[in-house]
């Protein structure tokens, strides 16, 4: 985003298509970088997964995962509440930027800021260790550097399990965020940009997204792997405006800089 904005100020459009988390797509739009266009293919998407300048490309599910060598079968977590048990103290890792967790718990799990803050403060008392990058979290878990991860991506685990990695993950509940596709104004290749954006939003493109290990956003296309949670707390477009508030809360709870 920083590079795209800098290039635009210098009179250069960095790319044709933008496909990143929705909060960053919105930031790009606010900077005047994106085209106002509704793709015909977006008609198959429900409200909440499309907008005046974007269509959801895929969903990312924040879930809990664990190392099966370090967690006994009868101690495997069934819900996030299980991580309040004393056995998890000093054995948990998470991503420091995942404010979506406290936001979603406040808005949709507990429907109360106070209850969500209380819950995550209890989790913080377990001495959670933070590492940037969700792929990094998955690799640390595979290597046995931690017993469990609180904010991992569900799509990172099926392929690792197939390769024999000693990990498992929880699909009973989780938080979902949206990745969106948008087209840059003054795209160097405007026709190609439109073709790609339409294709990736179509059922055909979404099936390719699924085959690649992502969780497709199109309601008629199922993910190739088990990546969708049974109970999902979705981060909506309206929630994006409250990111600064919950980012501050998240950092205060875990004493992050």
Structure report:
Helix content is 33%, strand content 19%. It is α/β, with parallel strands linked by helices. The chain folds into 2 domains: 2-59 and 176-225, Periplasmic binding protein-like II (D-Maltodextrin-Binding Protein, domain 2); 60-174 and 240-254, Periplasmic binding protein-like II (D-Maltodextrin-Binding Protein, domain 2, 3-Layer(aba) Sandwich), CATH 3.40.190.10. The longest helix has 12 residues, at 113-124. The radius of gyration is 19 Å and the shape is globular. The model has no long low-confidence stretch (mean pLDDT 95).
Q: What summary fits the major beta sheet? A: 9 strands, mixed
Stretches with pLDDT under 50, minimum 5 residues: none
Distance between the termini: 21 Å
DSSP E strands, number:
9
Mean pLDDT: 95
Looking at the structure, what is the overall shape?
globular
Which range does the strand content fall in? 15-25%
Number of domains: 2
Structural class: alpha/beta
**Helix content range of the residues, please?**
25-40%
Order of helices and strands: HEHEEHHEHEHEEHHEEH
CATH top-level class of the largest domain: Alpha Beta
Q: What is the CATH homologous superfamily assignment of the largest domain?
A: Periplasmic binding protein-like II
CATH topology of the largest domain: D-Maltodextrin-Binding Protein, domain 2
């Amino acid at each position: 985003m920083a590079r795209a904005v800098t290039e635009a100020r210098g009179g250069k459009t960095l790319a044709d298509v933008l496909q990143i988390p929705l909060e960053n797509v919105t930031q790009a739009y606010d900077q005047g970088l994106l085209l106002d266009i509704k793709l015909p293919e977006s008609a198959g998407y429900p409200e909440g997964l499309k907008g005046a300048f974007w269509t959801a490309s895929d969903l990312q599910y924040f879930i809990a995962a664990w190392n099966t060598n370090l967690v006994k079968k009868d101690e495997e977590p069934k819900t996030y509440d299980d991580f309040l048990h004393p056995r998890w103290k000093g054995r948990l890792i998470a991503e420091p930027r995942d404010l979506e967790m406290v936001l979603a718990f406040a808005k949709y799990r507990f429907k109360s800021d106070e209850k969500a803050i209380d819950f995550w403060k209890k989790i913080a008392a377990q001495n959670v260790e933070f590492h940037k990058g969700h792929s990094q979290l998955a690799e640390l878990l595979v290597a046995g550097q931690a017993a469990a991860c609180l904010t991992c991506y569900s799509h990172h685990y099926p392929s690792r399990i197939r390769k024999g990695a000693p990990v498992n993950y929880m699909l009973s509940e989780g938080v979902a965020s949206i990745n969106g596709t948008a087209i840059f104004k003054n795209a160097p290749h405007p026709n190609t940009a439109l073709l790609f954006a339409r294709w990736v939003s179509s059922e055909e493109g979404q099936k390719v997204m699924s085959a690649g290990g992502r969780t497709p956003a199109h309601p008629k296309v199922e993910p190739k792997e088990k990546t969708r949670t049974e109970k999902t707390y979705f981060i909506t477009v309206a929630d994006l405006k409250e990111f600064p508030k919950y980012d501050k809360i998240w950092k205060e709870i875990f004493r992050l800089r």
